[in-house]
Amino acid sequence: MDSKYCSIGLTNETKNGFKRKKPTASICVKKVKLLSDSISNCLQNGHEVSKNIETHVVKKNSDDLQEARRKLPVFMVRGRLLEEIRKNNTMIIIGETGSGKTTQIPQMIHEQRLEGTGLIVVTQPRRVAAITIALRVAAEMNTEVGNIVGYSVRFEDVTSPRTKVKYLTDGMLLREAILDPLLSKYSVIILDEAHERTVSTDILFGIVKLAQKERNEKTINPLKVIVMSATMDVDTFRNYFDSCPVIYLEGRTHPVTIYHSKTKQEDYQYAAVCTIFQLHTTTPADDDFLVFLTGQEEIEAVMYNIKQIAKETTGPPIRVCPLYAGLPPAQQMQVWKETPPGTRKIVLATNIAEASVTIPRIKCVIDTGVVKERSWCSATGAERLVVRSGSQAAGWQRAGRAGRTAPGAAYRLYTAQQFNTRPLHPTPEILRCPLAPTILLLIAAGVEPSTFPLIDSPPRDSVTASLTLLKELGAIDSVENPKLTVLGRKMSSFPIDPKYSKVLLSAPEYGCLEEALSLVAVLSSENIFYTPMHKREEALKVKRKFISPTGDHITLLNVFKAFCKATLKKQWCKENYLNHRNLTYAYEVRQQLLAICQRLNLTLSSCGSATDQLLKCLLSGLFSNCAWSRSAGVAGGGARYVTGAGGAASLHPAAALHAASPPPPALLYTELLHTRRTYMITVSAIQPHWLQQVAPDYARRCRAYR
Ligand SMILES: Nc1ncnc2c1ncn2[C@@H]1O[C@H](COP(=O)(O)OP(=O)(O)OP(=O)(O)O)[C@@H](O)[C@H]1O
């Protein structure tokens, strides 16, 4: 990247805030008129809240917070809104980003005690949103989080018997539904950010619908369901929820000016860096920036570039904060930490910051317009990560991260015409993701998958492929009339993909539970290697001491074992070019998984240096992730493989076996990355005959293997 930046050319499309398509009049059942207003900036201080999360999202002065609340559009119509909530058992609420839906509506319901003896629960698609919103609401209610207001996310529950307002991830509520499909302890369920259409939210729509019906029939305490978003496809939702009332909340807190690039950008990372510095030299130091990128590697590359360019550029000092799902929670919270006056914070985030969250002082959003999505091809069974353009709804949500505590601007690094040709809403995850984890949860909750009410039904062949996988994993007894097996019941107790819970449950048989726990924990974390661009050669040289000739899985295990033994961990990671945050996160995940294994009475054993045992154990869950060499005599990186699903794939250049000569005849990989070519990521060599031994049912139907 050139160290000089240049203007990419942006055009001001909308001077006075959002240019929004209004919802269609036909479905405008009720309309509550609001005034738009502004709120004062809320000053923030850091304070210690939960066991292991240092947070910076909370209060300074309770009067300031109350004043800010009163100025929110939602707060101003609370009388009428509460009347509607009292009257209706199901309703849809639509209101501008930042108008106060998520923080205020649950509080308003609680202030009137509409929840009675039950709890109010609010779902969020992402953990960072559930945590930061709970902290904010606790501060507004002048209480500690975990008291009246709490949150529950994977690997962390900060609630108590006193909790009445609970924020949680949609995945957590789904897990609760396995144990209690009527969700009886809740009297109000708010499904927030409904537009995101995650698999978990889509399933929850069905679960709450069924629970509401059954609770009415059995005259158990009634259940109120509220579905909320700023950018949802109202017609679809209203049809699904039996023509329930829709409430439109008008008004927003602060205007956001939208700018589009005048021309198409070839390289969005480059365009992002140019725009950052263009704004850096022209905007006040206290305006913070939020930049949307697609993943950890990209964020680290842009972070490096910013730091390099900043050395040669005039302007206020810069603090760059990354924000992506795999970042350990304490590190994510750094984004909410105040910077010294006169310092500019630049947050580089994936779409985990796209909806719900408020990062105070963000005045400029830089939207690259792209997102990395997991998708799945049911025809080939290949699961892959693809970088693609986001929807219009995503564009509005991203812009909505500015203008929350003061007027703001969103700089879109794509043209207005490109924006207008994008789909209005994202493709529901259920139509593009592997369904095995969700189907397992549904069956565990006693639900019949084929009659379950879904907004959009996944293609029949996706369902069959997922049921077949679950059968081969031993989680269900048949594809036609699936019932959970004893193994399947145990698998559903782990908050991880069934492929990996199968690995843990098989580990005692292979005498390697210690190693399997470490490996699954590391695979649940983001990249543990740190390879700075300017010291690439040195980092790769240091990495060599951990490399196993069998490939990446044992290499990862070697690193993790050494990390656990190291005394000065931070220093040790620095010397070895390893990511301390991600290794610490893996360590915490391992503790949680270990606790579940202990509850299930699994025997803890170690295979020591017999790593074949661990690879066979890994194969017991990941048998559908095998590939076979089709290029005898071609060395390492050039070798072509065919996957179990029949597709062509190559070793990723970062794989330990990339240069192996001769190329191993059979491989086991963790993930396929689909760019111009299909690459296998995190790969180990296996013996071809292991598949027959470990997963005979799958081996029989796998054509590539035969
Ligand atoms: N952590 C925070 N720090 C400062 N202000 C906050 C914080 N959280 C919320 N706010 C204020 O409360 C307002 C309402 O936030 P809330 O999340 O309830 O809006 P929303 O309507 O749910 O938005 P969205 O549709 O984007 O999720 C924000 O615009 C902001 O002014």
Automatic annotation (TrEMBL):
<dbReference type="Pfam" id="PF00270">
    <property type="entry name" value="DEAD"/>
</dbReference>
<keyword id="KW-0347">Helicase</keyword>
<dbReference type="InterPro" id="IPR011709">
    <property type="entry name" value="DEAD-box_helicase_OB_fold"/>
</dbReference>
<dbReference type="GO" id="GO:0005730">
    <property type="term" value="C:nucleolus"/>
</dbReference>
<dbReference type="GO" id="GO:0003725">
    <property type="term" value="F:double-stranded RNA binding"/>
</dbReference>
<dbReference type="Pfam" id="PF04408">
    <property type="entry name" value="WHD_HA2"/>
</dbReference>
<dbReference type="InterPro" id="IPR011545">
    <property type="entry name" value="DEAD/DEAH_box_helicase_dom"/>
</dbReference>
<keyword id="KW-0547">Nucleotide-binding</keyword>
<dbReference type="InterPro" id="IPR014001">
    <property type="entry name" value="Helicase_ATP-bd"/>
</dbReference>
<dbReference type="InterPro" id="IPR002464">
    <property type="entry name" value="DNA/RNA_helicase_DEAH_CS"/>
</dbReference>
<dbReference type="GO" id="GO:0003724">
    <property type="term" value="F:RNA helicase activity"/>
</dbReference>
<protein>
    <recommendedName>
        <fullName>RNA helicase</fullName>
        <ecNumber>3.6.4.13</ecNumber>
    </recommendedName>
</protein>
<dbReference type="GO" id="GO:0005524">
    <property type="term" value="F:ATP binding"/>
</dbReference>
<dbReference type="InterPro" id="IPR048333">
    <property type="entry name" value="HA2_WH"/>
</dbReference>
<keyword id="KW-0378">Hydrolase</keyword>
<feature type="domain" description="Helicase ATP-binding">
    <location>
        <begin position="82"/>
        <end position="250"/>
    </location>
</feature>
<keyword id="KW-0067">ATP-binding</keyword>
<dbReference type="Pfam" id="PF00271">
    <property type="entry name" value="Helicase_C"/>
</dbReference>
<dbReference type="InterPro" id="IPR007502">
    <property type="entry name" value="Helicase-assoc_dom"/>
</dbReference>
<dbReference type="Pfam" id="PF21010">
    <property type="entry name" value="HA2_C"/>
</dbReference>
<dbReference type="InterPro" id="IPR027417">
    <property type="entry name" value="P-loop_NTPase"/>
</dbReference>
<dbReference type="GO" id="GO:0045943">
    <property type="term" value="P:positive regulation of transcription by RNA polymerase I"/>
</dbReference>
<dbReference type="GO" id="GO:0016787">
    <property type="term" value="F:hydrolase activity"/>
</dbReference>
<dbReference type="Pfam" id="PF07717">
    <property type="entry name" value="OB_NTP_bind"/>
</dbReference>
<dbReference type="InterPro" id="IPR001650">
    <property type="entry name" value="Helicase_C-like"/>
</dbReference>
<feature type="domain" description="Helicase C-terminal">
    <location>
        <begin position="275"/>
        <end position="446"/>
    </location>
</feature>
